[in-house]
Automatic annotation (TrEMBL):
SUPFAM superfamilies: Pectin lyase-like
PROSITE patterns: POLYGALACTURONASE (PS00502)
Protein name: Polygalacturonase
Active site, per annotation: 168
PANTHER family: PTHR31375
Region of interest: Disordered: 296-342
Biological process per Gene Ontology, one example term: cell wall organization
Species this chain originates from: Capsicum annuum (Capsicum pepper)
Subcellular location: Secreted, Cell wall
Length: 342
């Protein structure tokens, strides 16, 4: 299938059923501009059917690695959808992002599956920006970049019962790279599982950044299995290495809860809360962390900068402690025998 664009407005609800495997041209040069399948300006839209959208991305990934290709098409692009649902659909081997969500409201992904090799470049599962009331639930992501990435002006996003891996985890950001970015407010990631990912739950902002706001973020009831950086606030995010890390990020992170995260880390540093000295994190609550590391370096540790979190419940490793090891419970005070008068 070549490039297709379905654009409204339409007079009533519309359902697109995909019941087969649709294959994109493998040669990236055959898709000159835009995305592979684009859906715009619809209310009450449904995509369903149990089918697969195969982007046939291998040649494009090789082209990107050789720097012969710059802009590659996403498998799916959803723009200005309202009151819509994407369910029982698989996206396979996209040339770039599997899904880009932009300016949508009340959009649900249910039983949605993303599949690509762990080394496929820039193949984010779902990238969401400038959207509100998006719900991703009961879905699986195996890809070479973020399972779900969250851009600016995202509000009231719910991610529940998602399995991620391989991939780079679920990330708020990266933010601060562009001027006039709007706040990210109201994100919950709950009852999710990460398996052999490069990160677990993450907030990432650029150093020397433009101003921005990240607030009301909740990571709760998370299982991690052999995950690098299971809990990560990274305000010196610079994957290319071409950044001025001496200038702090100006993105303000506040009102974050990190609650009930358990499992195993692939790296000794299991909890990293590296906030900006220019805009220190505020209102961060961390509770009931139980993450172990079995490497030869010793037990799991944590690292914190420019943050004073409110700690609740169990902390293993001991969060924002250089020692990292869990603090043993204090021994009970010895009982004194009552003395008798002579």
């Amino acid at each position: 299938m070549n490039q297709v664009k379905l654009e409204g407005p339409c007079k009533g609800p519309l359902e697109l059923q995909i019941q087969a495997t649709l294959k994109a041209p493998s040669d990236p040069n055959q898709l000159k501009t835009g995305e592979w399948l684009t859906i715009n300006k619809l209310d009450g839209f449904t995509m369903s059917g149990g089918g697969t959208l195969d982007g046939q991305g291998k040649a494009a990934w090789e082209c990107k690695e050789s720097k012969k290709c710059t802009k590659l098409p996403n498998n799916l692009s959803f723009n200005s959808l309202t009151n819509s649902i994407i369910k029982d659909i698989t996206t396979l081997d996209s040339k770039s992002f599997h899904v880009n969500v932009n300016q949508c409201k009340n959009l649900t992904f249910l039983h949605f599956n993303v599949k690509a090799p762990g080394d496929s470049p820039n193949t984010d599962g779902i990238h969401i920006s400038r959207s509100s009331s998006v719900n991703v639930t009961e879905s699986t992501f195996s890809t070479g970049d973020d399972c779900i990435s969250i851009g600016d002006q995202t509000e009231q996003l719910s991610i529940t019962k998602v399995t991620c891996g391989p991939g780079h985890g679920i990330s708020v950001g990266s933010l601060g790279g562009n001027p006039d970015e709007k706040p990210v407010v109201g994100v919950i990631v709950k009852n999710c599982t990460f398996i052999s990912t490069d990160n677990g739950v993450r907030i990432k902002t650029w150093p020397a950044s433009h101003p921005g706001v990240v607030s009301d973020i909740h990571f709760e009831d998370i299982m991690v299995q052999n995950v690098s950086n299971p809990i990560f606030i990274d305000q010196v995010y610079c994957p290319s290495g071409i950044c001025n890390k001496n200038l702090p990020s100006q993105v303000k992170i506040s009102n974050v809860t990190i609650q009930n995260i358990k499992g195993t880390s692939r790296t000794q540093n299991a909890v990293s809360l590296l906030c900006s000295k220019g805009a220190p994190c505020e209102g961060v609550e961390v509770g009931d962390i139980d993450i172990t590391y079995s490497g030869k370096e010793g037990p799991a540790t944590s690292k914190c900068e420019n943050i004073k979190p409110n700690l609740k419940g169990k902390q293993s490793p001991n969060v924002c402690s250089s020692a990292g090891a869990p603090t043993p419970a204090p021994a009970p005070a010895p009982t004194r025998a009552a003395s008798s008068s002579s």
